[in-house]
Amino acid sequence: MSWGIWAIIAIVLLIVETITVDFFFMMLALGAFSTAIVAAFSTSLTLQIITFAVVAVVALLFVRPWARNHINAGTGKESNVYAMTGRNAIALSEITENSGRVKIGGEVWSARTKNDQIIPAGAEVTVLEIEGAHAVVYEVNV
Hints:
Helix content is 46%, strand content 20%. The chain contains three helices and five strands. A five-stranded mixed beta barrel has the order 1-2-3-5-4. By secondary structure, it is of the alpha+beta class. The termini are far apart.
């Protein structure tokens, strides 16, 4: 019957893992599931604790780093608005430190400059950064 307790512990740990998504509690759940299997065939509490400790520690030391690197590897490239940094655009209107519009790859964005620079409409600009809904730009041929 102790195998059922270990199974419940493993399920609770997996539920906690879904909240944290850090692979820590999943490794403990792996230890608890392994211990549930051992407990189904042995009533030795010492063997169960040793099984849990060994499997959890091995999983934390070896499986968790691999899983985190594998899941978080991605493409290595920025995405969404962060990918716009460094892209060229065209000024659709005069761009000042307070207002302006640019076209970045087919999308129209609100834009502004830094350092009191004024960019005329039609100029080629480069996106310096994205601040909220504004692209901070500078003129390419200055």
